[in-house]
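Re: the 413-residue chain
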Amino acid sequence: MAKEGADMTEETEYMIDKNVSKEAENVESSGDAKEMRAVVLAGFGGLNKLRVTKKAMPEPQDGEVKIRVKACGLNFLDLMVRQGTVDNPPKPPLVPGFECSGIVESVGENTTGFEIGDRVMAFVNYNAWAEVVCTPVDFVYKMPEEMTFAEAAAFSLNFVAAYMMLFEVANLREGMSVLVHSAGGGVGQAVAQLCSTVPNVTVFGIASCFKHAAIRDSVTHLFDRNVDYIQEVKKISPEGVDIVLDCLCGENTAKGLTLLRPLGTYILYGASNMVTGETKSFFSFAKSWWQVEKVNPIKLYEENKVIAGFSLLNLLFKHGKCSLVKSVMDKLLCLYDQKKIKPVVDSLWALEEVKEAMQRIHDRGNIGKLILDVEKSPTPLMASDSTETSEAGEEEEEPEGDNDSKERMPFIH
């Protein structure tokens, strides 16, 4: 079974390799391998690098579960993958995506705990944006009966990350205060809901003005990122806050550390300020690096402050903390069953609408999670631009000079 899965992977890579001749491609695709639709990133860069194409369907190896995907989550991290700004990404062409939900179609040898037909949600180390995925059983969780596939795709990454930052890293307790950036996003809304499960927790949310009406009831105090939120927070809480959750980095790192109370914890879990345009910008990287306050351990010691970093995907795929994540997921599903938490879904998009969906999160237009609905029919105008009939998943390269014209103003949260 393992050898068969490895052969399938080699076949897939061969089919989509841009250097393979058309004749060889036709020979390879003429076999008995079943095909599926998938979003393929042909190379790092702008939205033009994304296409929906046909790929060989994977089969489960030992210890893996094969899932017929119903919905996939779209995160800001996926934009950074597209641009090639994450550490050690796979060599393109690749299928993006780290989380999905669907129905178990088969299981590999030595795989227990799941049966064909089970409704599940799963973490995937890339390859989630496809009709079928295979992932190790340790990354798969059964869905509650009342949970929809869209909710499940919005649940796993956002709520597990929010829970672990609040309770495993920062030790959130009764009477504490939390400041969260991007309060209208998927993680931000998960943080707000989880804070509401602890008595007398004050939540300071930072978000774009146009989102305030929709999310005002989810937090205690809400501020516009464009105002001096440090002074606004200190008017309410002169000593500052106990926990700062920062997905921005850059100048907000120094601001977050300034707001911490003694024994407070600042957690960095993203660096979205480094992304300002459709393609990777060296200037944005340099600016964010320059704005990050260089942490002095002696100063942390003197001020009794804690600074931490958190990456859920690294915790799963690099550090092997599957059991810890499983225990957190069990707690979260109990909270869901008790109707204390519920994923916020912003909108559903067809695979062929992936460019438009990514643009929406690019422009910070979402409140909650964007979902790729595998069974959704695309809007005709969108589908004509995003669908590729070639198995190579390629398209004509844009001139290098066009990248500069696509630079956008920095995002507003």
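The chain has 15 helices and 15 strands.
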